[in-house]
Amino acid sequence: MNIKDRLSRLMQGRYGADEYSRFLNGAGFAALLLALVFTVIAAGLSAKHPAGSTVFHVLYFVFYLFGLLLIVYCMFRMFSRNTGKRHAENTRFLYIRNTVEKKWNRLIERWKNRRVYHYLKCPKCGQALRVPKNKGKIRITCSKCGNQFIIHS
Ligand SMILES: [Zn+2]
After folding, report:
1. Which residues contact 150 (CB under 8 A, 6 or more apart)?
2. Torsion of CA 36, 41, 42, 45, to 10 degrees
3. Contact 143, 150 (CB under 8 A)
C-alpha cells in the first residue's frame, strides 16, 4: 500500500480541510512565528534589561501556547467524524469573515473619500448617509425615513 492509499484510508469518513481549518492553521503558524520573534528579543534583552526580557518571555509563552492550541484544534477538526457539526462551523466562519471583509472595505472607502464626503447617520432612524463636503449649509433628506436636517458641510 503506497502513502497516498494509506492517507486516503486514514481520512475515510473524516471531515478533512476547509476554509476554517486553513484559517486556523495560518493563524496558528503566525502565532508560532511571533513566539519565535519574542524569544529572540527576550534573549537579546536578558543582559541589559532583565525586566523587559521577562515581558518578552511571557509573550513568547502565551503566543507559543496559543499557536499550538490553534494547530491542535485545526487537526481535531480535520480528523473529526462529526462532519455535520464541522460543516456548520465552517459556514459560520465564512459568514463572519464576509461580514468583517465588508466592514473593512467600507472603512477603506471612507478613508479614500475622506476629503469628498461626510459619512453620518440620520439622527432619527440611524440610516448611514453620505454627504458631499465643502458645500456650505445644506439640507439633508434621509433616504430611509425622509427626516430632514441641516448641516454645514
Ligand atoms: Zn432616517
Report:
1. 137, 138, 139, 140
2. 170
3. no
Cell of 65: 501556547
pTM over 0.90: no
Give the CA dihedral 24, 26, 27, 28, nearest 10 degrees. 80
Q: Which residue type, as a one-letter code, is found at position 135?
A: K
Ion ligand 1 nearby residues (CB, 5 A): 122, 124-125, 127, 142, 144-145, 147
CA of 24 to the centre of ligand 1 (A): 41
What dihedral angle (degrees, nearest 10) is formed by the CA atoms of 20, 26, 32, 33?
Answer: -160
CA of 117 to the centre of ligand 1 (A): 18
Provide mean pLDDT across the span 9-38: 96
